[in-house]
Amino acid sequence: MAEISEEILKEVIKKRKSQTHKGDYGRVLLIGGSENYGGAILMATEGTINSGAGLTAVATHPLNLGALHARLPEAMFIDWRDTKLADLIKKMDVVICGPGLGMSDLAKQILVILRRCISEKQTVVLDASALDLISQDKTLLPTNAGHLILTPHQMEWQRLSQIRIPFQTDSANIDALNQLIPDSNAILVLKSNHTHIYDGTGQIFVNPIGNPGMATGGMGDTLAGIIGGLVAQFGPGVETIQAAVYLHSLAGDLIAKDNYVVRPTELSKVLPKLMKKYSEMV
Amino acid sequence: MAEISEEILKEVIKKRKSQTHKGDYGRVLLIGGSENYGGAILMATEGTINSGAGLTAVATHPLNLGALHARLPEAMFIDWRDTKLADLIKKMDVVICGPGLGMSDLAKQILVILRRCISEKQTVVLDASALDLISQDKTLLPTNAGHLILTPHQMEWQRLSQIRIPFQTDSANIDALNQLIPDSNAILVLKSNHTHIYDGTGQIFVNPIGNPGMATGGMGDTLAGIIGGLVAQFGPGVETIQAAVYLHSLAGDLIAKDNYVVRPTELSKVLPKLMKKYSEMV
Amino acid sequence: MAEISEEILKEVIKKRKSQTHKGDYGRVLLIGGSENYGGAILMATEGTINSGAGLTAVATHPLNLGALHARLPEAMFIDWRDTKLADLIKKMDVVICGPGLGMSDLAKQILVILRRCISEKQTVVLDASALDLISQDKTLLPTNAGHLILTPHQMEWQRLSQIRIPFQTDSANIDALNQLIPDSNAILVLKSNHTHIYDGTGQIFVNPIGNPGMATGGMGDTLAGIIGGLVAQFGPGVETIQAAVYLHSLAGDLIAKDNYVVRPTELSKVLPKLMKKYSEMV
Amino acid sequence: MAEISEEILKEVIKKRKSQTHKGDYGRVLLIGGSENYGGAILMATEGTINSGAGLTAVATHPLNLGALHARLPEAMFIDWRDTKLADLIKKMDVVICGPGLGMSDLAKQILVILRRCISEKQTVVLDASALDLISQDKTLLPTNAGHLILTPHQMEWQRLSQIRIPFQTDSANIDALNQLIPDSNAILVLKSNHTHIYDGTGQIFVNPIGNPGMATGGMGDTLAGIIGGLVAQFGPGVETIQAAVYLHSLAGDLIAKDNYVVRPTELSKVLPKLMKKYSEMV
After folding, report:
1. Considering A96, A128, B143, C97, which has the largest number of Cβ atoms within 10 A of its Cβ?
2. Is residue D138 part of a domain?
3. Residues of C with CB below 8 A from A70's CB?
4. The whole model's pTM is what?
């Protein structure tokens, strides 16, 4: 088990080369945001856009369109019931599914479409209700994805792995992950005060930073968005996931220096500055 | 009668412990925001979220959804006509009812649902039109709540207590409060230039700070939101209410140093910084 | 003819007294904002709220509700087709009618309602398309208002007064104003690079400041809003109007120090700070 | 082939004269923003308004109205299906068509209307899907415009010119431009890491600045908006286009000093300050 350090940011966040265009920084699709949880997909999208994804699209309930563009004109929109969603999924480098998705039949159908359309060159980040739906029906797992990243908090992991929280030891978690997704291309980001990252080969990484001011709604959605943004730019290796988790907490710690509560939307705002700093370190 | 001082902030606003998660900082539901007064519930919600509540949900007219998420993606949304409102109320630690609620039949029905669903582990903050509706029909009081906090301004208190403003003396107010809510678990926050707080045991606390730049629409809604946010984190004791009232005025005084009018939305923005400062004082 | 100076701000903008509440700072209703010109009423409302009105309501096309509250939760909303508009008008201290109103039949009906409901304790600020509609039909003038303030630019004044721009001399303007509104309670704010203010008694005041970076859409709407905000607080005297015109240009000059174009929304943001400064000068 | 330098900004961006009004700074209409790409037209409009256009109107899908005014109350709105669009086009100095326009039949019809209504005193900026639609049907080119500015990226230019990217040499590009638009009043802004500007007389200008943090969705939309804003104020000469391209990159470089990714909306915010600086240099 290794502790993640600031070094991972220097390593992963590369200085951009001049002969590049937005396509080089990845296409990310975020799926989520029901009538009740529209804010979750907005916060995830803020994480993705502020962490530098090349192109970002959002599939959500049409009720969320106005707020999406009021906050984030950079994001493209698609009604999540639109039959073109299937084709859009196929064009993406990364799909983040789950923030504010909800447990409706439509949400389940979307997972079915995702499973059907995803292929091995793509990465899927599964978060929140996407994980809960998969807990109910394991066949919804988009196993054809080249890389699968699961980002449950402890209760979601309990539902998915059937391991109750007190028994979520490293070895139990690794076994459960390998059983759930036998290929070694899966990564589990188990969120807690000290988030653990498990990859399919048995490596474990622990996040030593972060603060309790981050204990507020939307923090996990934002992390999912940052993971997607970094994978789009730096690939789906476990180093990228470590960098995303560390960056998220580092940004939270920066806000918490002066603020009692860390609003997720404030956290996302400082990402471009933090990433700049680390991209120039050697 | 005691004057509230800065000390109450040091006492109430605790440094967060590291082994905590958002559930530890309380679930708050805000109910209000008719077609005409949608801004009121938004301003209350900004008070709640910026003062650090763990999870915040808003039951409001569906017309307000777009602006809610454009300003506050951190908030969950429910259409206030949704039959799931009753179940949602049951899951909350604090319910703030009233900002922009209006006097419609629907508003009345919501108070009936609130009264039916609330229980003794929960705190209810009643503000604005919720108080006016109760003035018309006392049976709407959600007396099953573990703690009831009323936040009328003087005219609303006149309607509720039948005491005309010039006769709203401390002893008259205490008597009226005890008559209205015989249990000692009620707190009256009587808003004026020097807001008085009365608890059910006869204690009286006076707010010595604040400024006339705060005399603008939405200031009371914001206070209701802050009260809910602090109760969610620090419990429903009268110290928490004192802290909320004092914090609200302190933030207003900070803005008023440089601004003729104190916009409620600006006031809410400085809450995380002020709270940070006092959480670290001993 | 007198040149307005900074002195007017010290004189008009009074330090607020502590024993006051929002009702003491006036109720303002803004009417305007068609489907096509919704932004105009938003910018006017930003002027009103940032200049310190106690309570602000907006009657506009329902399409504008979302953006109104996304920007300005402080404002109350009423659908401008709502039959309760007539009653609302009666409760106001100041009504600003015109920004983005448009030339529709509905706009005309609103002027009819305004004329019918307004009374002598109230001030009406007429701007933009309200003036153009009155140009077509003089009976739409709300002559029962205690004070009438017209804020045309030169072309609108040409249509209203029938004086072509090159012939808009001071004496011609005064004659036309007195003919249009025989009572001496009318004030004409004739907007140009050096806005002139004419009152019904023949006084003339010229604004010496301002800058061409302010030559951008929405600047006039913002001025109408500021006039309403100051009248609500400091009464409808010609000094208040001078202060509003000067304050608007002073804010514009402040922004223009660092900015090529002065966005109206940026201008409104600095009003609370500027007003604070002058409220404390003797 | 000449390299664009900072000098072009001093030359083009003129200090505004005091005897001017908003009409002197041009009327700009932006057309675009389908259900899926509403953010594109918002970002273009931010470029136009922040670069100082006198009056700005937006023809877009009605779904985008709320976000438009939440971000930009300065912009007027028209439903892009509104039959009054044709008349509105006739009143404009500059029409920017394309950002987020999409490839629908309606989009095509809009190009037909644009072609029919535009005349020689007007400038048209064609961007994004407008160019792709013209690639499919050359008769959609609004050739009656006094000045035509095309702003394709390399792939859009490939579709329009039939020159594959590796073969897009200066001489091939000039030939293709002259063949496409035989009059010498056309300018091609071929976007890449080092954007080239070609005018109808064979001049070539290369942009030496910019940075790869700008490789993110919406950057091109913002440039189209800035081009329109500057043409509205400084005329359609090739110097204006050089200034717009250089200003866009300079703003991007300013943001990139401290930020890993350059969000287009952040870029637009610094335009008024940059333009101020250059307007005062001799």
Report:
1. A96
2. yes
3. 67, 70
4. 0.98
